[in-house]
Amino acid sequence: MTRHAKVAIALPAGLLAETDSVARRLDRSRSWVVAEALRRYVADVERAARDGLDASRRHQLDRDLAMTAEQRVREAEAVAVIGGQPGAPLEQPHRFATYDDFVQWRRARDDG
């Protein structure tokens, strides 16, 4: 059997009313709703710590996931900077016939 401890907390009246409304709708107790909210919060914090995401990054990720794919693409296009200038053409990748050609190009680039 799970042991329970009583905890006294102060909640804003509006939040308590919403909690009671959820409890009635789910046919659960107020304690169950609060405990479930805490379980989910703790799991989210632990997942964020495990994933290496801080609170601001987690918030940004949640905001991005709430958008449609099209909205995410439009947002990315609005902030994308390619080649140092917004809207600049993409630089074509370099291709080399041999590894020696690559090394020669790299040395020339690094020396220049």
Written overview of the protein:
It contains five helices and no strands. By secondary structure, it is mostly helical. Among the domains are: 9-52; 54-84. The chain is elongated and about 75 Å long.
* Chain-averaged pLDDT: 85
One letter per element, helices H and strands E, the order comes to: HHHHH
Compute the gyration radius: what is it?
27 Å
How far is the N terminus from the C terminus?
A: 74 Å
Per the principal axes of the C-alpha atoms, what is the gross shape? elongated
Residue share in helix: 55-70%
Give a count of the beta strands, DSSP E runs of length 2 or more: 0
- How many helices? 5
* Major beta-sheet overview: none
Secondary-structure-based class equals: mainly alpha
Short description:
The chain is mainly α. Helices cover 64% and strands 0% of the residues.
Secondary-structure blueprint of this entry?
Layout: H1 13-26, H2 30-51, H3 55-66, H4 69-79, H5 99-111
Which keywords apply here?
single chain; 112 residues; mainly alpha; 5 helices; 0% strand
